[in-house]
Amino acid sequence: MNLFSIVLFVSLLGAGMPQNRSNSKGVSRNSSPSRRTANPSGEPAQPVTNEDPPRANLTALEDNSGNLVSHVRTLAQTLYQCSKSATTDELKLNFLKSTTVTCNDGTPAGYYIRESKGSKRWLIFLEGGWCCYSKESCDARYRSIPRLMGSSEWPQAQKGSGILSAQPEENPHWWNANTV
User: Fold this and answer.
1) For 4, 35, 150, 166, which has the most beta carbons within 10 A of its beta carbon?
2) Closest among 95, 59, 82 to 7, alpha carbons compared
3) Does residue 179 contact residue 161 with C-beta atoms inside 8 Å?
4) 175 and 92, same structural domain?
5) Where is the composition biased (Polar residues) (predicted)?
């Protein structure tokens, strides 16, 4: 991601600079708007004004820069594919090694994790759902939502969606974060 940021910055920096300065007029920030200065040949020069210099027309620069935008898009897509191949979309199941920490039914406690190499950001998702406060309520919870009571039926890997997604189209802010 750092290489992409650098390339994007450098390309945008180059796109913001004018390509042809032969038509630009000398503009000075002088308090006298109607003052004229003479050029070295003695002829009157263009009037000096307090107006802001013209802004760069980025559309015109895109045409003159050899399709810079399309090159940047291609580069971004290539870098995305490279970073995507290094990571997986799936969250992998890990069980805790401690036998004293268990689920309600006695199966080992666990969590899902997806590591994103190079990312220092972490997204920790704590899934909620019910609670039980007596034997009857725990039995009802076990019958209605067994996956919240034990880990015996958990899949070895699962694909995240929404904020847990590894797709930048679905999760534009956290797609490459380490996820638990």
Assistant:
1) 166
2) 82
3) no
4) yes
5) 19-40
Check: CB of residue 5 under 8 Å from CB of residue 176.
no
- Which amino acid appears at position 166 of this protein? A
Claim to verify: residue 121 and residue 79 sit in the same structural domain: no
| C-alpha distances out from residue 105 to 81, 102, 138, Å | 42, 8, 10
User: Both tokens of residue 110?
Assistant: 């666990």
Q: What is the pLDDT of residue 23?
A: 47
3-state secondary structure labels for all residues of 64-75: HCCCHHHHHHHH
Residues 78 and 141 in one domain: no
What are the two backbone dihedrals, phi and then psi, of residue 47, each rounded to the nearest 5 degrees?
A: -65, 145
Query: 46: closest CA among 22, 24, 26, 21?
Result: 26
- Supply the range of the domain harboring residue 5: 1-17+50-86
Residue with the bigger pLDDT between 65 and 79: it is 79
pTM of the model: 0.51
φ, ψ of residue 37 in degrees (nearest 5): -115, 155
Q: Six-digit token pair at 3?
A: 């290489």
The tokens for 144 are 């209605």
- In 57-180, beta strands by DSSP E: 90-95, 110-113, 122-123, 157-159, 178-179
Beta partners for residue 47, in sequence order: 36
98-148 residue pLDDT tens = 999 999 889 999 999 999 888 999 999 988 777 888 999 888 988 988 888
